[in-house]
Amino acid sequence: MPKLPSYHLFPTAETASKTLAAEIGELVSSRAAAGQSAVLGLATGSTPIPLYEELVCLHRNGLSFANVTTFNLDEYLGLERKHEESYWHFMHTHLFDHINIPPGNIHIPDGTVADENLQGHCLDFENAIVRAGGIDLQVLGIGRNGHIGFNEPGASPEVRTHVTSLNEVTIADAAESFDGPQNVPARAITMGVGTILDARRVVLLAFGGSKAGIIKRALTPGITSEVPATYLQLHDNVSFFVDADAGAAIEPSSLPE
Ligand code: PGA
Q: What distance in Å separates the CA atoms of residue 177 and residue 171, rounded to the nearest whole number?
């Protein structure tokens, strides 16, 4: 039975990010106390930056990431790791360079893999998730077009990690960082919707007025490939953490208790 994600409205992006960081900190430390690892699925983009700041803060206050394994949602194809817009660069700048995660526990799709090896690379990525025991908590952002990871409008729900072409809205939104749409990579590697739905818990973050319309659609009953975030209605443990601007179009009375 489809089920709407649970909706949590916060006054600011910072308060939402602190709440999620605290949940992640609790997961990581309770697993460590039991001698177990915690497996996190991570996202890039402007949205999770305050979350990563909070996690770095928790680390400075004593939280160890020695037992953490991570899998990133996606990576642009054709960018070297050291490219400033690569997600490898993003994750190291905002998080990994500042915490004690063992480098071997970090998994980010490799945007430099040659075309003939891409299928194998995607399969290896999926297998690594399985070997790690599956993702405990997947962090997501959302595109204005409803994409999750680079699962663009038209994506199907059962697909696993794969190569995809960027949608025009995604390219337009990335154009400024790349100094023009012509410089935005045309393709990316992304976890599939099926990979994301296998995570035991999913928390989607959305901040700012540009996300208000798509948040309203994603929280309206009705699953459609045109809005891949609606596939989250197929999962029974999804929370949306939204700031006041991104939640501006939601009427609380339209949501389930
Ligand atoms: P943003 O991107 O965090 O930069 O808004 C989110 C996304 O496209 O998933």
A: 10
Question: Residue 4's pLDDT is what?
Answer: 95
pLDDT band (50, 70, 90) for residue 254:
confident
Residue 200 tokens, joined: 């035991």
Place of tokens 């690379």: 121
Q: Is the pTM of this model over 0.85?
A: yes
What is the C-alpha separation between 21 and 53, in angstroms, rounded? 9
- Nearest partner of 90 among 40, 34, 45, judged by Cα: 45
Give residue-wise pLDDT tens across range 141-197.
999 999 999 999 999 999 999 999 999 999 999 999 999 999 999 999 999 999 999
How far, in Å, from the CA of 140 to the mean position of ligand 1? 9
Sign of CA dihedral 105, 110, 112, 114: positive
Q: Measuring from atom 2 of ligand 1, which residue has the nearest CA?
A: 45
Residues β-bridged to residue 242: 9, 206
Q: What residues line ligand 1, using a CB cutoff of 6 Å?
A: 45-47, 141-143
Q: Which atom of ligand 1 is nearest to the CA of 48?
A: 3
Residue 95 has pLDDT above 90, yes or no: yes
CA 83 to chain centre: 20
The pLDDT of residue 251 is above 90: no
179 is catalytic: no
CA dist., res. 77 & res. 84, Å (int): 14
Type and span of the H or E element at 69: strand 68-72
Token digits of residue 44: 């890039």
Residue type (1 letter), 239? S
The average pLDDT across 40-57 equals 98
The single residue of 67, 72, 145, 167 carrying the catalytic annotation is: 145
